[in-house]
Amino acid sequence: MTVPCLFCRILGDVAPCHPVHDTRYTKTFLDIFPAAPGHCLIVTKQHYRDIFEATPEDISMVGHVSTLIAHTVKQELQCDGVGIFQLNGAAAGQTVFHYHMHVIPRNEGEELAIHSRVQGDPDELQAMAERLNRRALAMHAEID
Ligand code: 5GP
Ligand code: ZN
After folding, report:
1. pLDDT, tens digit, 9 for 90 and up, residues 62-82
2. Structure pTM?
3. 94 CB under 6 A from ligand 1?
4. Which of 17, 78, 91, 94 could be a cystine partner for 29, CB 3.0 to 4.6 Å?
5. What whole-number distance in Å separates Cα of residue 50 and Cα of residue 99?
6. Which atom of ligand 1 is nearest to the CA of 115?
């Protein structure tokens, strides 16, 4: 029997996460190695390795939720910009092989790293997830 991937374990509540937002098709939680505070990952509930396996419907849902999460981090964190990207294949830098989108708050003068090796403080991550969750719920009506 194959072991489910990391994000499938998070989706199955077998591994922990700091949750931000949930839909029928996606789950958004914080990256535990944040490239910047508030770094979110939007993952499909269905396991797809990458963009080449994911269905157009699920890819477009992730796009829709990315917009909501971009507005959420911009409003809540008052950041200067927001980076949205995803990686496909080890050659492109993908490290977790379950389709997902990064949403990263950016500020002028900060280094533009994609990945960080420094794990976030669990209490800070939890407080950030709760802030973004509240803001996302409050903004949903505006974005939908
Ligand atoms: P990728 O490199 O595949 O585009 O992104 C995978 C992301 O998952 C990385 O930014 C990495 O920091 C993050 N990550 C790795 N392990 C964990 C984990 O256990 N929990 C969470 N929430 N994120 C993780
Ligand atoms: Zn998976």
Report:
1. 999 999 999 999 999 999 999
2. 0.96
3. yes
4. 17
5. 5
6. 10
